[in-house]
Specification:
This protein starts with 19 loop residues before the first strand and ends in a 5-residue tail after the last helix. The chain folds into 2 domains: 215 residues, 3-Layer(aba) Sandwich (Rossmann fold), CATH 3.40.50; 97 residues, no CATH class. It is an alpha/beta fold and 324 residues long. The chain contains 12 helices and 8 strands. The longest helix has 18 residues.
């Protein structure tokens, strides 16, 4: 569970442009944006972004060797370039699992590697446990099992002790009488008929998340996180999922981890991840003993942190048969 020495750490691959992209009508009024990067006919992989509601970025493509991979990235329902924007209708974990299967069929793959971080790890586990026969390997970062304990850490007590000044702003946006259930209070505002009310709540919600995902202050990332469109999509969709326990039964992902047996896997987890603390990754390791758990001693939550990048790139290289 040790990380590579700092001097030996791998970085991201150079920027790469998609060789194909498009929109897929998945029904229920939703169309999702997809793109394929790397080399046609390379090792099939699918990338699952986080939040939920975050959308894909160009830098996320760089975690895969483009000479070896044919990787499909897509914006999940309601976010990024998918339409309708910030929609909560027909937007659940199981809709997304079905979308992944539709994209696999579109790409013409029988099986593929599944890569997901943060909420993407939740979705990757839900997909792999439902369709284990379609998964060749799992590469996961910042494990989130969608438990009440994890939600309480972020929205009741835990992270609030590490970032008291930002927590004061987050909780302070809600009248004192409603602060006993901040997720419900924000849901009321994020689904308001008043666009100004929605936007104000979205910016505060996204600022709170932006602070918890950074190991060190990153003003540029926070500016992106709280930009109007990004904030609205992340806050509305994320709150929508958390308000419904991500449509998972209590303990479901650990309960069904036996379905992952025989699937090679790597978890890259930051020791100082304040958004998704290491306890969830450790619990998953106990339920799925075959997985390789790497705890990065100087790592937080984001894939762009040096130790996290190193672990993820080494994992994708290894699963593509690349030595070193």
């Amino acid at each position: 569970m040790s990380a590579a020495a700092s001097s030996d750490r791998r970085g991201l691959y150079p920027p790469v442009e998609p060789f194909a992209s498009g929109m897929l009508d998945v029904g229920d009024g939703h169309s999702i944006y997809w793109e394929r990067c790397g080399t046609p006919g390379g090792k099939p992989a699918v990338f699952l972004h986080g939040a939920p509601g975050g959308g894909c970025s160009a830098k996320q493509r760089q975690q895969f060797d483009p000479a070896l991979y044919d990787v499909l990235l897509f914006d999940q329902r309601g976010c990024g370039r998918s339409t309708p924007f910030a929609s909560l209708e027909s937007n659940t974990t199981w809709h997304l699992v079905a979308d992944i299967e539709a994209l696999r069929e579109l790409a013409g793959h029988d099986r593929w590697m599944v890569f997901g971080g943060s909420w993407g790890s939740t979705l990757a586990l839900a997909y792999a446990e439902k369709h284990p026969e379609r998964v060749t390997e799992l590469v996961l970062r910042g494990i989130f099992l969608a438990s009440q304990q994890e939600a309480n850490w972020l929205y009741k007590y835990g992270a609030s002790e590490l970032y008291p000044e930002t927590w004061s702003e987050f909780a302070g946006h809600i009248p004192a009488a409603e602060r006993h259930d901040l997720v419900a209070a924000y849901h009321k505002r994020l689904t308001s008929d008043d666009p100004a009310v929605r936007l104000a709540a979205a910016k505060v919600w996204s600022m709170w998340e932006g602070v918890t995902v950074t190991l060190l202050p990153d003003p540029e990332m926070l500016a992106d996180f709280t930009a109007d469109d990004h904030a609205v999509a992340v806050a509305r969709i994320e709150n929508h999922y958390f308000s419904h326990d991500c449509w998972l039964e209590p303990g479901q992902l650990l309960r069904d981890a036996h379905r992952l047996r025989g699937i090679p896997g790597v978890i890259v987890q930051g020791r100082h991840d304040c958004c998704t603390p290491p306890a969830a990754a450790w619990a998953l390791k106990q339920a799925w003993p075959e997985v390789e758990l790497q705890i990065v001693p100087d790592g937080g939550h984001l894939f762009t942190e040096p130790g996290i990048t190193d672990g993820l790139v080494r994992a994708t290289d290894r699963f593509a048969g690349k030595a070193g």
